[in-house]
Amino acid sequence: MPVKSYLEVLDMNLKTMVKARNPILYAAAEHLFSAGGKRLRPTLVFLVAQATMKSNKILNSHKRLAEITEIIHTASLVHDDVLDDCTTRRGVNSVHSTFNTKVAVLAGDFLFAQSSWYLANLENLEAVKIISKVIIDFAEGEIQQNLTQFDLTISTSDYIEKSFYKTASLIAASCKATAVISNTSKNMQNNFYSYGKHLGLAFQIIDDILDIVGSSKSLGKPAGSDLRNGNLTAPILFALEEQPELQLIIEREFYKEGDIVKAIELVRKSQGIQKAQDLAQEHLQAAINSLKFLPNSDTYTSLLKITEYILFQII
Known about the structure:
The chain is 74% helix and 1% strand. With 315 residues, it is an all-alpha fold. The chain has one domain (3-311): Farnesyl Diphosphate Synthase, CATH 1.10.600. A hairpin with a 2-residue loop joins strand 1 (88-89) and strand 2 (92-93). The two termini are 31 Å apart. Its cofactor is Mg(2+).
């Protein structure tokens, strides 16, 4: 059965899984699931499951893990949008702008709680430990991001650490937990964790480049929204090395009219985007290297193609 078929079933299941007694909570949760999204995390769960099981067999616990990862991811987006005051997500109005901030916070909490319930029912303690750590990482990433807004002293390594907590942690944990459910060797589990970690870091770097070069339509959220919130990402950090004017604009927190447009223009004129792209490619190569233990197969090819897909979003 191809991964696409599993994803179609997953989409149907997500809407039935998030049943809440309160219709507002259900409406808030369903609102985002109906908007779709890339479904990268469940796709990886299905591919890693096929790569680690005989005859590409996918277990029911793999399918449930795929659903759990998407619920956790969606919960984090709901809370992210509240913190960043983002009005759109996946091309539709964000939960807090459709309903209100209280509903959005409660909806995010509800989704995290729902995911924890399904996670416990996997009855695989090792997988539970791996995925549970992700929710701690999300909180750590959000705290780091909010404490370092407009902070010109942050380094590229600080940015990578925050990107791990906010994005790569869930992708890495999803890949590893899938291999755990498949009862593979520790070495194989760690290789898949490494693949997910580097893929996730590259994914975040590319997403941060798109915040500068993409359109609101392609992003599903306003362009430059991360920069406007003072989140200094890879292309901005690299651009700061050669654009002193950019530093002045960020220091005054885009106080003057036209500051955001000018800042984006300065980043685009610099080598910041190219250097960030090079950094993403380094992580994608590390992800590919983590899969060298796998034999050639359609699944192996698909895992490699995901690295290409991530990079080609900006080429």
